[in-house]
Amino acid sequence: MTRAQIQQQLEQIFQRHLGIAPAVTQALVPATVSAGKLYEAHVLSRVVERLVVDEGYSLTLVGGTKIQFKSAPGPINRNYPRIELRNGSACLAELWTDVEFLSLSYCKSSGASLTKGSYHELDLVIVPSGLSGRPRYDAVWLGVECKNTGYQKGLLKEILGIRRELSFVTDDQATNFNVWPRKRVPADPASCLMVYSTDAKVNDYAAPGQIFGIDFIHEPM
Amino acid sequence: MPLSRQDCADLIRYIQGLLRQYDPLSFETVLRGVYASPEEDPRRYLIALLSAIQNVYAERSGGEQARILDSVNRYVRLPDGGPVRGLSVSLTPAEQEVYGTAEVNLAELPDRSEFVAEVRRILLIIESEIDWQGNRG
Lengths: 221, 137
What we know:
The structure holds 2 protein chains of 2 kinds. Chain A contains 7 helices and 10 strands.
C-alpha cells in the first residue's frame, strides 16, 4: 500500500468515527477527568481475577453497586464502594481505588505536621478491613500503579520513591499472600508493589524491582 | 514500493493534522503518550504515534468499559449476589461545580471500538510496508 493510499484510508477512518460532534463528547467526559481511569479498571479486572484464582478469596463489592474511581486521590472514605476480600465469612482485607497512604518517613518523624510530602497515591491498594483515612505505610498489603502511557525513566524513579516510603529493603519476608503477587518480598514491612503498563518498554526498567521488590507487568489494554 | 523514512515523516504530519482537525482536545493527550522522538527515526515515531492513538481511544471507549465490566463480574459480586452495575469516576467538589455532576459514568463514553480496530489495522499495514533497512529518504 502506498503512502497516498494509507493517507486516504486514514482520512476515511477519522471522518467516519471521529467526525461526529467531538465537542459534545468532550463536554460529557473531559479528558482530564477520565484520563487513565479505564486502564485502572482494566488492571483491576486482572487483579481481582488473580485474587480469586490464585489466592482463593471471594470478592464482594460493598458500599455501592458500581466500582468507583476518583479523579483525584484521597484518604479512605468509607462512604465509597470497596471490594472486600473474604475467606469464608470473614472479611480479611479491602481493595480500594485511588488512595493515599501515610509515608514511612512521615510516620517515623514523630510529631511532624502533615505536609504534601507526607503521603503518596496508589491507584489500587489492598489494606486490612475497617480502616479509614490515610492508611499507614505498614498497613499496605498490596499497592498497584497503572500507567497507560509510554514508560520512561521518570516513572521508574517515581515507583522507587513509593517503595522507599513503603518499606526498608531487607532479606525476603513473608507477605500476606500465598502465591500472587508474591509469597515473599525483600521488604520490611512486607508490602507487595506492582506496576502495570501498556508499554512493553516497562520490562526494560524491571531490574531494580528484583532488589527492591517491585513487579513490573506489561499489560496491554 | 516500501514506505521510506520520508514517507513516514509525511504520514506523521498527516496524522497529526487529522487529530488536530477531528479531535483537537485529544491531540496533546496523544502526543504525551508517544515515547519516541520524530528526529531520531520517523519510522519508529510513526508506529509509536499510532500505538498512542490506539491506547488513548481504547481507554475512552464505552465498548471497552463493557468488556472490562464483564471481566470484573466474573470474580466480584454484590452482597445480594447480583452483578456489579458499572464503573464510574467520582469528581472533586471543584470539578462537580464545573461539570454539574458528581460522577462520570465510564459507560457513557462513546464506543470507539471500531475506530481503535481500524487504527490497529492501518498500524499493521504500515509496519509491514516500512523499509526498515534504508536510512535515507
